[in-house]
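Hey Z.,

So I finally got round to the adenosine-5'-diphosphate thing we talked about over coffee. Here's the setup:
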Amino acid sequence: MSSIIQLLPDHVANQIAAGEVVQRPASVVKELLENAVDAKATDIKLIIKDAGKSLVQVIDNGAGMSVTDARLCFARHATSKIRQAEDLFSLHTKGFRGEALASIAAIAHMEMKTKQDQEELGTHIVIEGSKFISQEVAVLPKGTSFAVKNLFFNIPARRNFLKSDTVEFRHVMDEFQRVALAHPNIHFTFYHNGSEMYNLPAAGYRQRIVGIMSGKTNEKLVPVNEETEIINVQGFVCKPEFAKKNRGEQFFFVNDRFIKSGYLHHAVMAAYDGLLKDGSQPSYFLFLQVPPNTIDINIHPTKTEIKFDDEQALYAILRASIKHSLGQFNVAPVLDFDRDANLDTPYHYKDLEGETPTIQVDGTFNPFTDDKTNQHYSKSGSGSGYAGSSGSGSGSYSGYSKRVEPTASWESLYVGLETETESIESAPFTFENEEVTSSLFNDEDVEQAIQKTYQIHKKYIVSPIKSGMVIVDQQRAHQRILYEQFLLNMTVNQASSQQLLFPLNLFYSSDEMTLIEELKPSLETTGFVFDEAQTDHIVISGIPVNITESEVSMVIEQLLSDLQDGIPASSYSQNDTIAKSMAKSLAVKTGSYLTEKEQDNLVNGLFACKDPNISPFQKPTFITMRVEDIDKKFAL
Ligand code: ADP
Ligand code: MG
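And the result:
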């Protein structure tokens, strides 16, 4: 019987290997930057075009390669960094597998120029899809330049799989930042489509972090320094009050290599125990040095994971040294745990899993009656509400009744209003009893004996209150109401949707289609129903109940423009961004005339919000004017 097994030709083997090493332009950036660092360069330039899809070039002033090495470096398993298996345990370089260049050369057009310091002339090689096109002797400066063009030119499926330029650029940025942070002593410059993104002169860690993150970072950093036998910890953590909602700026480096470690992250979080508001994330930049023989970096092909010999000891040391730093720099007392809960970000439903809590809206609740308020609240308090923060995300939600305190501030505006104090001319101040979640603008005409709100300049709603008057900004107020409604639907309620008679077809560019594809899961939680997408358009068969068919394309346009810079990673901020964007596009605008009923609904709706004072964009939604203030003006 004839044999059927064959050895794969090198170019095929390389192409297969490339699948593991090169997922996207950012992988090329990482490999080339790391090679330049390994070559002991002190100056490294990264130049990319179209998020790296058309060009990734890295120019260094490092050791360069001899003529032979210049050719050999493209062979698989060709490396100068290890010679035998034992060397794996004393690694001082980033690379060691010897497969990056072979892999990249298999799936792109590549050009290399390299010269060693002591040589007169250098080597210029062009290689495309593993095939050497040319090799020449050339006059070159010291160092090496690799230019990688047309990534995945011979694997269309992979090329099509690439995300939008925005997304790919973010990945490139991540890789650049990781390498640049780990090596502050190297001068890095980074250009994208001809504009300079970074120019980072050689510096120390602090300066490098500030150079990459932003000028404001400096004041937020607390240094960490700890030297022990098994580990040396250096770096910075951020003061607790600057902790963020997302995990963007969290970096561990082990022996100058960026790594991810849930375990060590936990150690950091443990050091902050009690100092952070629920769910917020501190930034940190921690550089750990350990003896190379106590780690194994060989466990993951893209090498962002690592195995330590004595993880538990590292955990304890890391936690203790950060705790010490936070204490030493006396950052704890700056925290104000007594701050008004009203000022906190309104929603915090992390990790919503398990049973979905229900919200109960008290239909009879009227914010403009004084004495029965608490009673109403405690009535709804029997159900599980949404306002309590669950902290651990364990799914236990404290009752609605907890809201009585925080909301007291606005209620006080109205206290006593109806206690027959003759002083207000405009007579009894009773608002329609209705569910706060009902649509703002239903057309029912409700005849009202007395007008209690006035719209002025199609911009503000003015209404008398006990102490004087309240002036509500109609656009901002409506944004707040819609924002909370959407957020509530997305995180707690099952959003209901209205089925369209004829599905809507909306056409978008391929970049936009990618973005929409990523947003779909979140949009579905607001009530959108999508049918199978086509290449150039989406098909919508259901929409949220609180929007009309004609508003759909406007809402999506707004979303796309708001998310131009990429989609936030965490689902919390993704929901938040979408809710904000939809609130922005759907809110009634300045310049719109509102009927009395609409004005009422708006004011009622606003004060039923969890955070009525500010719009989702942090602008005041209303102001009050006391009678005394008005009196004073007349006294002049
Ligand atoms: P690895 O980095 O794992 O050794 P690579 O395929 O990335 O494998 O590189 C192969 C070899 O080419 C390296 O070991 C090194 O000797 C050489 N090399 C690659 N890039 C450079 C560079 N920028 N300067 C000098 N030598 C380089
Ligand atoms: Mg390498």
